[in-house]
Amino acid sequence: MSKNKMKDISNFKGSSSYVVSRELMNSVNVAVALQKPLLIKGEPGTGKTMLAEAIAESMDKELIIWNIKSTTKAQEGLYVYDTVQRLYDSQFGEGDVSDIKKYIKLGKLGEAFTSEKQVVMLIDEIDKADLEFPNDLLWELDKMEFHIPETKETISAKQRPIVIITSNAEKELPDAFLRRCIFHYIEFPDAEKMEEIVRVHYPDIESKLLAAAMEAFYWIRDLKDVQKKPSTSELLDWLQALTLSGISVDRITTEIPFLGVLLKKNQDLDTIFDVKSRKGNTNGSYNNSGYRWR
Amino acid sequence: MFIDFFYLIRSKGLKVSINEWMTLIEALDKGLCRSSLVDFYYLCRAVVVKSEADFDKFDIAFAEFFDGVETADDIPDEVWKWLDEEIRPAEFIDALRQRFPQYELDELMKMLEERLQEQTEAHMGGNYWVGTGGTSVFGHNGYNPAGIRVGGESRHRSAVKVAGERNFRDFRQDNILDTRQFQMAFRKLRQFSSRVDAERTELDVEATVQETCDNAGLLSLVFEKPRQNTVKVLLLFDSDGSMTPYSHMCSMLFQAADKSNHFKDLKTYYFHNCIYDHLYETPNCRWGDWIDTNWVFRNLSSEYKVIIVGDASMAPSELMSRGGSNYYSHWNEEPGIEWLSKFKRHFDHVVWLNPIKQEYWEYDYGCFTIDRIGNLFPMYELTIDGLENAIKKLLVAR
């Protein structure tokens, strides 16, 4: 028994396309072992959604994604009773209207519960929904079952799904909900970790190009005036743009080409141009901190 | 087990429930922390702390509780030096593992403390003293399965050290943050109701079904009014010279409130140091550019939520005396405090946001008037936390 458990908890070690920190790995394994939902927060672009994919991939399980929108109701994740269809059918005499089951459509959570094999269930960006949304799911996530009064049926999980929930921290989640979760905050990766992540995505990237790009990237992130800081996914896009264009390495730090890939706000672009033009007359030489236009 | 730790983190302001604590115990029971303090730190944090804003509080508590296990302060430099010495490769002793009792962590910590007091020299390969390569419960690269690692390889990421770094200080909610966060805070200021004057635009499924059945199966659609926010806000800014250092913050707050288009109504006025007969329509507070304060009382109903932003710092006479207003030699018949009391009497919900940090309220130049005004209105710091608390106050019944 205990040996089995140990195997369980050391299951997740990251995957070939996802670099995972030790802390995150621990959190995932703790959540799996304790059978509790794992709540993931972090800056946009730190790979919250990808984590669920990586877990599903490395544990060889199916991934079910439930994307939350501001109008999503908890009920939709369980099942939808298509009353209007039934009404129309009854009016036009189509099909067997007395079979209510036909008009019950399971939502994503219902799908996960009824799956024969254990699945990974991703509830993406839960904070987008109404404040009451997480609370409406307390029982379902706790007991992994729900009742359909229309058919007097109880749907309970055949295999407890591994539940991953992501949040962008746009709203505070209710305490009662939080109490049932294992929590992990994905920190922004430091340069070392970032290099590892980049190498996973672009194994053949040139070291010089990468070094220059990273230097410029972290320089931009460190600028106080930049409001929307570029994140991992933007760096990856930028690297691809740089590689494809075949721009010479020197020009990366002096000109920062394709800046629009990194920065999405007009003010931020202006900030960079400002800083560049101000420092432009110092001959572009490196100062002590190793950056050109500081 | 660790009950003291439980109460310590609660005393640091983390809302840990018994449920979460039981979860932690269950996790320990399942061996999820693998007898390592670092793993214990992460496990404990994942289970107990539910917001990155609270990581710092947890770090402080953890460092305090496990202080003496691995902090550099408590372990003399010589000990670190012994531990830094290289050790010979481990080619033996696997069987030894079983011979050692599985100590409890707190037991170990006590032992370490005692051992450190006894120990006077470097030790390598022994089985008792703190050192490297040995089988003592303390030290690194050793063989005791229940041991506490003292320094060594994990010294850079040791749990207490990790906690001690306080990497998450920036996320503390008492920091002053940007407009987006103000906006998020304002979003909480809402009370939905469907009893508003609006078009009936939302399909009421339940009623539709009922109605259709009553109608012998012929489809009959029923609509209802949408839920809408009913909150009305009156925002009053102090734009006195003493507020200049905080003008950036005030403008962020104003923008956030202005952008929060979910209020049913938002009115903004300005005043100079304290509220008297007039409220100004622009931040410049120009002579004549004003409305009567009494107009506000006559025209705005008591359900408006009032947020007053100001440093509440002024000469006592400005607040307490007739004619105290120091502006354009304007003579006020009633003292400022009387005007403020009128606000309190007229409106059900009034809060005061003060850009001065709360810890200075008692010592600052304006401590007398801050105290007086603070007695009148609930006063909060102008930070995210303060605003959130203020908004909570605005939403609950007086």
Describe this structure in words.
The complex is a heterodimer of chains A (294) and B (398). Chain A is of the alpha/beta class. Chain A has helices at residues 2-9, 22-34, 48-59, 74-78, 83-92, 108-114, 133-136, 138-143, 175-178, 191-201, 207-222, 232-245, 249-255, 259-262, 266-279, and strands spanning 38-42, 62-67, 79-81, 104-106, 119-124, 145-148, 153-156, 162-167, 182-186. Chain A has two domains: 2-78 and 106-186, Rossmann fold, CATH 3.40.50; 191-282. Chain A has 15 helices and nine strands. In chain A, a hairpin with a 4-residue loop joins strand 6 (145-148) and strand 7. In chain A, 32% of the residues are buried. In chain B, 39% of the residues lie in helices and 12% in strands. Chain B is built from 16 helices and 13 strands. Chain B has helices at residues 3-11, 18-29, 37-48, 55-65, 77-84, 96-99, 105-118, 159-165, 179-187, 205-214, 247-259, 293-299, 316-320, 336-346, 367-376, 384-395, and strands at 131-132, 139-140, 192-193, 202-203, 223-224, 228-229, 232-238, 265-271, 278-280, 290-292, 305-309, 349-354, 379-381. In chain B, the strands form five sheets. In chain B, strands 8-7-11-12-13 form a five-stranded parallel β-sheet. Chain B has a two-stranded parallel sheet with strand order 1-2. The two termini of chain B are 42 Å apart. The relative contact order of chain B is 0.08. The interface between A and B is medium-sized, with 38 and 32 residues.
